[in-house]
Amino acid sequence: MDYLWTPWRYAYITNAAKGEVSADRCIFCELPKLPDAEAKIVHRGEHCYIILNSFPYTSGHVMVVPFAHLDELKKLPSAAADEMMALCQKMEGVLRQVYSPDGMNVGMNIGRAAGAGVTGHIHMHVLPRWVGDTNFMTVTGESRVLPEALDETWRRIRAALDPK
């Protein structure tokens, strides 16, 4: 077995350990206060919202985030959990329509050790994947290759969610 070392992840982990994210300054609690276009929010539900990942692995990488500041999935009320999964299902359809991917990743990283970028506020990632996509570049080249700007991604997904 070969190992690929990612020293830049260590810098991220040690910075996260310094407590840079707290309940009173949580990015996921602050973003819903902004206009949708500025915050890159593509949909607001009753308990959760859908936002573009500002540091996406692929074009179309979104996150379904509960409005409530919760650090564990078990703390999420049933109604919010139901809505979160329904929004993940909806986004799978939207991303398939907009991007025609070969597959999807859907999941959570809960806690610093699991790789959560925001450790105190749970969220679900939904992202399209393609055979031969360049996701390996993050590991091997400290780079991500994205063919589409975030503003264009926001416009396309927002239009697919609300076709008016």
The figure for the number of domains is 1
Task: Please count the helical segments.
Answer: 6
Strand content: 15-25%
- The global form is globular
- CATH topology name, in short, is HIT family, subunit A
Give the % helix.
Answer: 25-40%
Question: What would you call the structural class?
Answer: alpha+beta
Major sheet strand order = 1-2-3-5-4
Beta strands, count: 5
Spell the H/E element sequence.
HHHEEEHEEHH
Q: What Rg, in angstroms, do the CA atoms define?
A: 16 Å
Uncertain residue segments: 1-13, 19-23, 136-142
CATH homology superfamily name: HIT-like
Task: Give the biggest beta sheet.
Answer: 5 strands, antiparallel
The CATH architecture: 2-Layer Sandwich
Briefly, what CATH class? Alpha Beta
First and last CA, distance: 52 Å
Mean pLDDT: 83
Secondary-structure blueprint of this entry?
Elements: H1 7-17, H2 27-30, H3 36-39, E1 41-44, E2 48-52, E3 62-66, H4 78-99, E4 103-107, E5 124-129, H5 137-141, H6 150-161
Helix pairs in contact: 4-6
In words, what does this structure look like?
It contains 6 helices and 5 strands, in the order H-H-H-E-E-E-H-E-E-H-H. It has 164 residues and is of the alpha+beta class. It is globular and about 35 Å long. Helices cover 35% and strands 15% of the residues. Residues 1-13, 19-23 and 136-142 have low confidence and may be disordered. A 5-stranded antiparallel β-sheet has the order 1-2-3-5-4.
